[in-house]
Amino acid sequence: MKKSFLSLVLLASSTVVFSAGDSHWGYEGKTGPDNWGNLSPEFATCKLGQQQAPIDIPTKSLGKATAAIKPAYKASAGEIINNGHTIQVALSDAGGANLSGVDYKFLQMHFHAPGEEKVDGKSYPFNAHLVHQSADGKLAVIGVFFKEGTENPVFKEAFAQMPSAEGKVAIKGKIDPSGLLPKSLAYYSYTGSLTTPPCSEGVTFYILKTPMEMSKAQLEQFRKLYPMNARPTFPLNGRKITETN
Ligand SMILES: [Zn+2]
């Protein structure tokens, strides 16, 4: 009873295609990634999809992309949601970014430990996915890798407020996603899916080549809630990856 009530509350607060309230899947055992596609008919794409994310990016002989990422973010109020799978920072008015010539509105950012994408087999301890939506409903994700180093000011604010159990809080003050971007916005781009059920496809990824830093304490702060919330990588199945320098 209690559980379904919480699910309802979370579902009502989730945006677009993110089934934030579904707590019947996880990252281990019978409800882990290998079985997501069997848990519900709505999750079928998780096992049948041919353009799934994340991927391991091979950096040899990639196609050239020409469009630079043009971010236009600003500090915004919003909510920090612990949805049982990750921490999500949903911002109501954070601006957006121009990606491959299309304007996208920033929706939310959330985090994975370890980082979900790999590059030539190398993985990072953490990554942020910044989720955007265009006027016609298309999703684009900017992925930022993090390695251990100096403290990140955005995480300092966000992690201090994140709920330790499923639920959400209104952000005290404002959060600016710009603080998660490295100076160089050179990227690898590929077409993939949501990396959580229902694994819907048609999501364009822009994975930044330059990692950012966060402190060991910040990494541990997140891992205390989510020690492992990365989906394994998927085959390219003929997908072309492009890059900018
Ligand atoms: Zn993600």
From TrEMBL:
Gene3D superfamilies: Alpha carbonic anhydrase (3.10.200.10). GO terms for molecular function: carbonate dehydratase activity; zinc ion binding. Pfam families: Carb_anhydrase. InterPro entries: Alpha_CA_prokaryot-like, CA_dom, CA_dom_sf, Carbonic_anhydrase_a-class. Residues 1-19 form the signal peptide. It is an enzyme of class 4 (lyase). It catalyses: hydrogencarbonate + H(+) = CO2 + H2O. Its EC number is 4.2.1.1. CDD domains: alpha_CA_prokaryotic_like. Residues 23-245 form the Alpha-carbonic anhydrase domain. Keywords: Lyase, Metal-binding, Signal, Zinc. Belongs to the alpha-carbonic anhydrase family. This is carbonic anhydrase. It comes from Polynucleobacter asymbioticus (strain DSM 18221 / CIP 109841 / QLW-P1DMWA-1) (Polynucleobacter necessarius subsp. asymbioticus).
